[in-house]
Amino acid sequence: MDFTFDWSRAARTGLPEAVLCSAKSSTQLAEILAAARARGARLLLTRLEPAAFAALDEPARTGLDYDPLSRTAVLGGEVALSEARIAVVAAGTSDLPVAREAVRTLAFSGQGARLVADVGVAGLWRLMERIEDIRACRVVIAVAGMEGALFSVLGGLVAAPVIAVPTSIGYGVAEGGKAALTSALASCAPGVVAVNIDNGFGAACAALKMLGPAAMGEG
Amino acid sequence: MDFTFDWSRAARTGLPEAVLCSAKSSTQLAEILAAARARGARLLLTRLEPAAFAALDEPARTGLDYDPLSRTAVLGGEVALSEARIAVVAAGTSDLPVAREAVRTLAFSGQGARLVADVGVAGLWRLMERIEDIRACRVVIAVAGMEGALFSVLGGLVAAPVIAVPTSIGYGVAEGGKAALTSALASCAPGVVAVNIDNGFGAACAALKMLGPAAMGEG
Amino acid sequence: MDFTFDWSRAARTGLPEAVLCSAKSSTQLAEILAAARARGARLLLTRLEPAAFAALDEPARTGLDYDPLSRTAVLGGEVALSEARIAVVAAGTSDLPVAREAVRTLAFSGQGARLVADVGVAGLWRLMERIEDIRACRVVIAVAGMEGALFSVLGGLVAAPVIAVPTSIGYGVAEGGKAALTSALASCAPGVVAVNIDNGFGAACAALKMLGPAAMGEG
Amino acid sequence: MDFTFDWSRAARTGLPEAVLCSAKSSTQLAEILAAARARGARLLLTRLEPAAFAALDEPARTGLDYDPLSRTAVLGGEVALSEARIAVVAAGTSDLPVAREAVRTLAFSGQGARLVADVGVAGLWRLMERIEDIRACRVVIAVAGMEGALFSVLGGLVAAPVIAVPTSIGYGVAEGGKAALTSALASCAPGVVAVNIDNGFGAACAALKMLGPAAMGEG
Amino acid sequence: MDFTFDWSRAARTGLPEAVLCSAKSSTQLAEILAAARARGARLLLTRLEPAAFAALDEPARTGLDYDPLSRTAVLGGEVALSEARIAVVAAGTSDLPVAREAVRTLAFSGQGARLVADVGVAGLWRLMERIEDIRACRVVIAVAGMEGALFSVLGGLVAAPVIAVPTSIGYGVAEGGKAALTSALASCAPGVVAVNIDNGFGAACAALKMLGPAAMGEG
Amino acid sequence: MDFTFDWSRAARTGLPEAVLCSAKSSTQLAEILAAARARGARLLLTRLEPAAFAALDEPARTGLDYDPLSRTAVLGGEVALSEARIAVVAAGTSDLPVAREAVRTLAFSGQGARLVADVGVAGLWRLMERIEDIRACRVVIAVAGMEGALFSVLGGLVAAPVIAVPTSIGYGVAEGGKAALTSALASCAPGVVAVNIDNGFGAACAALKMLGPAAMGEG
Amino acid sequence: MDFTFDWSRAARTGLPEAVLCSAKSSTQLAEILAAARARGARLLLTRLEPAAFAALDEPARTGLDYDPLSRTAVLGGEVALSEARIAVVAAGTSDLPVAREAVRTLAFSGQGARLVADVGVAGLWRLMERIEDIRACRVVIAVAGMEGALFSVLGGLVAAPVIAVPTSIGYGVAEGGKAALTSALASCAPGVVAVNIDNGFGAACAALKMLGPAAMGEG
Amino acid sequence: MDFTFDWSRAARTGLPEAVLCSAKSSTQLAEILAAARARGARLLLTRLEPAAFAALDEPARTGLDYDPLSRTAVLGGEVALSEARIAVVAAGTSDLPVAREAVRTLAFSGQGARLVADVGVAGLWRLMERIEDIRACRVVIAVAGMEGALFSVLGGLVAAPVIAVPTSIGYGVAEGGKAALTSALASCAPGVVAVNIDNGFGAACAALKMLGPAAMGEG
């Protein structure tokens, strides 16, 4: 194989070096990891299913910090975390894998995050109990599946930008996450923006960009 | 024309005699009205656009109580209203035509209703200010377009059944009302039920059925 | 894990404490069950696949009443059942799992139900033979896949509210249940309301709300 | 213009010479009519809106038998009708334009038809009152919009083939006729076949083919 | 279990007793087969996957004539076949399972069929070589996936009614059979009718109805 | 206004300078035309509705060669046409506006074209009569709406590349051209390529590119 | 009418007071304007079509600064603009109305903006000529219809967050803006976020939130 | 089995003999291979999954050159390759299987190809480094998933025809390849044509046709 990694991305856009693993073979992943090691580069791997991680051979796996819940792996070790200026708010327990993908992406870039979970709007008091914690952050990442009502409720309660991450949690009309996605885009609360379904990584990248060059330099 | 009206519907199902006017010609509507007058029957007309009402000839229009906002007309006069046991809750000003179609259908059957408007979740305090009024009712009809987050928030706050009426208010992904409809169906708040987009009439019929035979007998 | 269960839901909305299991890990489910046991709370688990039930460890499974057909489990034992005021009507044998999820949810709350099965409209005489049994109930839950014609036929025959539960039974254009769902929403019989595809639990919750506070208090 | 009419179609397939007018200009229609007159051919025009008919010049309109309800026109005069062996069953008043397109197409080919209207399943007794009339026919064309439950109910009641014509009558999820179409295709009653939405002409053509060569020879 | 089979269907509609197996458990299927044997009824089983057939216990399987290609089984033995008056035309090798489901359904009812395979329109000469064989039949069942162009080409070449059976063969925009289905419904050749995707059984039922009562009496 | 026209496009890609007019105001179009005149550039305008053409003021319209059928206008006069090496094949009369947009775009670049119309596959003999004319060309542009079966039939008959242009002609499932588009993409005849619905201009551009630099130099 | 304006929104979320006019009647708009004047509040009106503006009576229109291109009106006069820290980048001339809605919303809140137009990726040199101007901004709003390739190209070139605003410019598969929207959400360039189709207002609100409280305080 | 292979396709259309394996059984494939061997014909097999290849028996597999990445097999050995006149450009590593299907199809017909990989537009410099190599070719096949922005960028940079092959790489709104497909069809760069999702074979066939009879004669 003869691939061309976009090594200048970090310099150009301030974002972490990352590889989407879902449609890549073990051989391809091993080559990418070897190339990163050869350059001494840190690397974030996303959508690396437990079975795919297990299928990597020993040299490829060495030194990878793998988290099965979020299906992410980090090559090159941790960095010190900044104080948390980003809230990651998850509607339900089932949304935690995506929320955690965002948290791990932020940590890869040195950003701490405040995780607020189980605050779905069907029991509004849970969200209200945590709202001041959320308001203290400069960016809010909201993670929700099913009907995604959390996005609008949050959007109306905080001054920070709200990045909606619809998840594929749900069944019937909610299957695949389209219902939550359309709720994010059609939100009656102005200032809510959306990323693709289950895209915790992308939401974290957007949050990093919103914090600005200083924040990204910390990564 | 030689149509067969379902005159026994009221007896069989307890629902009002009603005619959906949108795809019927002036001639067809005039014949239906004449047949109702000949039987001395009261009749509710829905989706009667102002232009279609104006196109009816004088005999057809005589004695019709027409409301352009809800596009409904009543033949046969008003009946006394019961105390309001049904709340009709509308998210925004643009949802009022559909909300009013529900209110007028209930009134046709003798049921008073409590209309609560402009309580969209982007400004949650407005809903919370009115929530006790809503909780006092036995059935709640919730009317909302765009992302329809109101349905889930209400469903989590009240013990009464919540009938969601998605409206076609919105643009882009919300155009036509599909986004609000999927929010109603995918709601994380159990016990929310849905009717078709913009179907204020159907929601009112369902509410009448929920109040039970006594209520319908009052119509 | 550190989740926030909505323990006040029953008090606020009258509905059973329930957990949707489909996207939760064994670990997450075990923690939820332990928390419920610690509070002495009864709990209903839905969409718990046989494999997921089998994957629970012994302490988690102890005392769970599991039903593989409906994929539901009950923690905390049975309660006495009221006389049946709710009919659960299923079009075909394949719709029974969803119908049974509704019956089990009602039973969890102390409500008996009348199950009427195999009354699809292709053989209309079967429904007509049972129609008086159905008419005797105060709420009707109708469960059907494929084209969902049962919803409209029932809606025209009974005075009780009809809650349509479309099922994902079918193939081709009916795959996933969208055909049955649109039939429910577009029904020519006014007063039919719909819940999400395969959502027997939600239909039961709505039925409980329709019976009113007294019924819910019995749960 | 220099078009190539398929004059041999009748000989090859037994179907009437027909022109779909909706996307053709007045000039194009006038040329087609002139060519038919030059050959002494009879011709059926479908989807000829009143405004498009009015826009034809005098020579083009001469001798056209135009029916605004069904938006059809016949060039070349009537033929004697056979006894009715085809039933055209319409669910509601709003479905009559499509039903009438079928009846007019059959008449153009010399086939009488039995029109049965206003027999939607929300008031099932209306259909049952007419069912023997329908059973006496060799082919049934069923015309319905909204949720199209009529197709399955009819399919389970008659031995003749049922050709379902979904109509674009309805709003919300039923808008455009997709809901009725999927009901026809997903019908639990075997032996129901479907044509395109609002395609009364195509249903009549299929019915003619089902009656067989003798019937078509009468056209 | 306590199911209500529609034993009067054959008498009422002339169609074979049949059971759609795809969403039924082994237990349910065994009970249905036992009930049929108890009545001495013949029975056709469709969509019985090889694994589901293998999962039936010995008593349930005894005397079943199972065909894995079409996934059909017959209980009650063969009947003598009439001369073939129905052509079953399949575009490609991959469409044969569905074509064979139609052929087996016809045979169950005593109707012979002429199977014409591998005549996709990309090599039109293959169809033209067989066209006279097809024209000799009174009904044509056309089976095709991908873009389904065969339906229109056949519809323009034969006088018999053409029943289009779209198949789920294809990928990308053709995945699931929607592309072939819309081609059938939108066909420029009048007189083509459609059944659901992969519904060889339904097409055969429609063909039986088209041949009329005499043919069905032979089954 | 201060727009930046891509004047180097012709040099870079060999394609004509063209402006899509549908969403531009009269003022914007007038400024674009003035800029082109100032440079002495030839310009092709597409999707210029008759009303939009009429709304242009006198200076803007001067010297425009406008064709209402194809809704195209040419600024800068005609060029000599090459011998026709491209066939433009239209299924029906209603497809002529799109076919003509392709012919006019080719003519703007100096390429003659052979227009073959009214050869829809429902009457296959019409296409077979013209097939040798089509086979003599180096590129084939096929224009069809409804089910678009023409694309596959042509693709199987000619050695030249076939560029499918689905049109928005049709109703019901064919409305908007999606049915014809999926037929083009799912074609069982390899080597068929597709452009957007109604995009005669794009098909002509692709054909110019296929003829190669020499052809484009003639424009 | 008796509506409840969310007057505390600005304090709570930092966003401008705004009214979406598209589904409101002249009477409703007049009442809203009167209420704002009574409070001395500034107000932004969006989606106010020229015909709707013309339909307002004199008192309602007085003092409104109306811009027909962006269909926005401002009540309460201009405020001084900050230096431009937000770039609004439009792919084509047809995207200018949406781009301008964003610029006007920013101006209402006192934020200057840098408008960069006609930089669609089909002529990449145009974007590259302006890229340094864009890179100098802290937030980028990208406005594009058709296939929306601009979003990914920009996302890969700048360090600032990119808010994608898909527009409804396009036809065929691009009609209504869904193609551009999916391009924004599926972007291979991480850190791109999206708002609803044609939602220039929402993009501006998100940009204001990203600049942070200081910026919003200037509004 | 008794299938009719289209052996004259090569002569008629210049394209390779090929078999789509995905929905065929091992038995069917073995028969097709035996028939080809009996005629001494070369044959290309596409979409032959590794498991399906492994399931072939020894005689069927003998002499097959199988490539698991592209899931293609060649019967009949290699032919000498022409100089590369076709560029196959792949956006990412995950798109290589489809790109390689195209390269292998071209090689089967004797055409060399220039493979350019990892040039997605998020890092535009990678594409610009290779653009002259691509410009040197007479046809460009572009392979991309996710949002497919590569198609438009390439279309604006090269004079050769660009055949877009959308791939099913992506998740959420990009799942299945529809997002990339609509980008190809809606491209703002004229002259881009599209084939079905993942259809590397079809793109290669179209490229062969574009090179013309001479090129195909080399196969």
Automatic annotation (TrEMBL), chains A, B, C, D, E, F, G, H:
The lineage of its organism: Bacteria, Pseudomonadati, Pseudomonadota, Alphaproteobacteria, Hyphomicrobiales. SMART domains: AIRC (SM01001). Gene3D superfamilies: 3.40.50.1970. Residues 84-216 form the PurE domain. This is NCAIR mutase (PurE)-related protein.
